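#structure-requests
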Amino acid sequence: MIEHILDLPVEKQIFYAVLGFSWTVYLWEAYLSYRQRRTYRSTTSVPQELWKIMDSETFEKSRLYQLDKSNFSFWSGLYSETEGTLILLLGGIPFLWDVAGSVMTRVGFGSEYEITQSLVFLTLATLFSAFTGLPWSVYNTFVIEEKHGFNQQTLGFFFKDAVKKFIVTQCILLPVTSLLLYIIKIGGDYFFIYAWLFTLAVSLVLVTIYADYIAPLFDKFAPLPEGELKTDIESMSKSISFPLTKVYVVEGSKRSSHSNAYFYGFFKNKRIVLFDTLLEDYSPLNKSGEPQPEREDTSNESKATPKNKKQGCNNSEILAVLGHELGHWKLGHMVKNIVISQMNSFLCFSLFAVLIGRKELFVAFGFNDSQPTLIGLMIIFQFIFSPYNELLSFCLTVLSRRFEFQADAFARGMGKASELCSALIKLNKDNLGFPVADWLFSMWHYSHPPLLERLRALGSIKQD
């Protein structure tokens, strides 16, 4: 078998190597998921060291939720891998490029308008991806998330949101892609440097404007009301010289009962965003039978049905969570991640400059007579770099876990260890996180350490 492949032309060797590696990664991921599903099925009672922090009812709910998610992931992953294989074997990429060329011909443009044809191709490809992924997204939201009490959307809101996301994505993707292709074409021998600088500028601009101009298109943001929590957040930020300018609450409850918090901004303009589902005293999901605050009428868009449980964290726990997040800032984790990302981007563009002239790469994927730049980007970044991307992803996962432990230690140094432990336990319950993980699955996938490991590091649970 191997000898037969080695006797094939180099373009065929490239094609089968890409296909073989893709299935190798899929089978590895499937094996890891199988190990974790085995853990879900076999661990049916609360482990002794968790007796004080998790009741059997919540444990069973989280076990069933994660088992359903894992089963769904298996079938959706199998479909995705099969679809990708068929696209490659049946020449789907050159076929779609030819369709884009036919569209161009109908409107009076020739093959010399490669950038325009690339944008048509990209639009068709994203439309295809959106339509094939839609049934899986609907099932995940309205069957799995609905079954376990997380979904707060109606079908109308879901489809309206999907259309809005597609339009916004195209409004960003198409201009950025056209400029990138133009830079590559006119950049000469050092085009990879200009391309890298351009993508760096775009990423910085998007990070800067996302929360102020893009995110509000999908969710309602409001300033955190004056009160004890806001005063304490500002005092804590000031104590570590965090240049906080605003604190927002985002109405995440109209979409899901999952909770989150993050900060954004550069230099002296930092903002903190809290999901309303994170705030015990603010979440609409806790206000069954209480007068509802005035809010935008979303009765036709989301359910916002109050739950018969107390969700979220109290003020001291929220401060502990933010102490963890501010630890990421104080310890330079964000800067380090940006530096790593940009070093990787520069390396990839440098290698792209070396490989883009290799005709056999294009022939391998059905482009015998042309070498479109966009297709070159796709082939090299998505297919040729896939082994490197897998290795890098694993290394970043390991680094992320290290950063999480360091941020937890920072919050502990601020005297918030017990509050952070309490918050982690509550958030794990609210989000139905399963606290028991297969070691190999956890090592490969978890960017955040498992709950037990974090509690042990914080001193809440003693190491056996």
